[in-house]
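FIELD: query
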Amino acid sequence: MVDEVRTGQLVSSTQGRDKGRYYLVVSKSEDDFILVTDGEYRGIEKPKKKNLKHLKIWPHHSEGISRRLAEKSKVTNAEIMLEIGELIKLAQE
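FIELD: result
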């Protein structure tokens, strides 16, 4: 199931205190867990570990963020928040 999710993809939480919050996938972890960030409450320096069962996977993703994470380039929290905003707009169309 982790194979369906890719770095830079938009996801939203369906369970827990952060229910309804949008995140970008930072990396895949073991089993059915991934690391996500929203750039605001969970910065890129300390991503949140989430179970895939507790996430809604959206079809939209950020090519730029994905490429930069793969290249190990610096990505700022402000860029992540901006990108999440843009992807949410796409998802609502």
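FIELD: remark
The first strand starts at residue 9 and ends at 13.
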